[in-house]
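Note to self: keep these together.
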Amino acid sequence: MNNKVLFITDTFKDLNVKKDTSIMMIEEAIKKQFHVFQCEIEDLFIKEGHVYASSRNILSAGSTQVEGISKEDIKVSEFKYSFMRKDPPVDENYINALHLLGLAEKQGAIIFNKPNSIKEFNEKIFALYFKEYIPSTLITANIDKIKEFITSHQTIIVKPFDGMGGTSIHKFDEINDKNMNILEEMTNSQQTQIICQEFIEDIYEGDYRVLIIHGKPFKKTLARIPQGGSFKGNLAAGGKGIAEDITDFQKKIGEEIGCYLKEKGINFAGIDVIGKYLTEINITSPTCAREIFDQTGENPISKYFEGL
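Structure:
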């Protein structure tokens, strides 16, 4: 019986072994006696029409990070499962890797999340598919339109399509010279679209990460609460993570979105909810599983593997 699995991640030196959900997944796979391999996107290649991964055998993934000494070239279709867990940005190299993984699927590989779905849905725009739950949103490269949006909403958030961890997110109450310079840079002199949303005061109560596992919202969430006067709840931006029980509203929206995700071959996702608003749907490499487990003893990753 084939029990080999592949994790496509950033390099181990770029992963926080105490917090990273990908490391937690690798640990769980080893615990379940899978033969675990890992590679980066540049290790994917095509030879004689077949998609291969130059991958290393992972013997453990905790603080010691014991690895196999050398890489092996293995057809991606020979793994029982492959998990695409490369962090954004979804740039040219990322898209090229998805093209290769899409071909690997045609050759029999089973890949989560589904490469074509990652290509289809930008994480920032994906939430707009559920427009009844989103805050007022403008997507444009035109600064005059952004000025009008600020006038209508007084306080807004602007962010790029490809950011993560709270990077390049700005809060504007007015258009002054400093903000104009930021907009000129973010829009590449009005050539690149950005996302503008009304500011949600409930952010100070927490930006909630709800994990969607095999189409179902997990029973524990992580409230990422801004600290020190910041408006950013992202853990990477200094937010404090507090695990809580899922609310009725979060469960409702999670179940609705979860059905759609499952249809698209996305079996592990994270939606971000502020108050009664959906702000993002994360499908590339959703995080926060470790924090939830450490604080509650409830293991989202164990639940994930049970459903495979």
